[in-house]
Specification:
Shape: globular
Number of helices: 6
Mean pLDDT: 90
Low-confidence stretches: 1-7
Number of domains: 1
Number of strands: 6
Structural class: alpha+beta
Distance between the termini: 37 Å
């Protein structure tokens, strides 16, 4: 929400020509989980975030990407009050992911089960609204690339 209490639409507030700062993103999301995931990825993988603009109809607008050695760890999409983490579980991670699933939250288990394998993996769009889901998301990111 903006200062007047009106929910702002991310894509209207920040068009392709109006790139947000990382501070703008954190303010829009308004969740301490945002800082937590970014700190975790930057420390565990020694990576810096990259801002990118997507015209993808599934989740258009500015997002934050983390890549290591040409491999995507995750893409983070700002939402009002929370964020979405896109984590792709590729064919190479599928067996490990399925072994991990029973230890993850019901939300993640259901999302995984309901997401079809396509374009080389399961494209999990994870709504990060709690510490439990954030912890699960870190586990899934670690399947993509092992932290240092």
């Amino acid at each position: 929400m903006d200062r007047t209490g009106i929910k702002m639409d991310w894509t209207k507030k920040y068009s392709a020509e109006n790139e947000p700062s990382f501070e703008d993103i954190a303010e829009f999301i308004g969740s301490p989980l945002w800082d937590e995931i970014n700190s975790y990825i930057q420390q565990a993988y020694k990576l810096q975030p990259k801002l990118a603009y997507s015209k993808c109809s599934a989740q258009p607008g500015w997002n934050v990407k983390y890549q290591k050695g040409g491999r995507s760890l995750c893409t983070l999409y700002p939402m009002s009050g929370y964020f979405i983490a896109l984590v792709v579980i590729g064919e190479k991670e599928t067996h490990e992911a399925e072994l991990l699933m029973p230890s993850l939250s019901t939300y993640i288990q259901q999302l995984y089960a309901n997401t079809s394998f396509s374009c080389g993996g399961r494209w999990l769009m994870i709504e990060i609204k709690s510490r439990e889901i954030l912890a699960d998301t870190k586990e899934l990111i670690n399947l993509r690339v092992k932290p240092k």
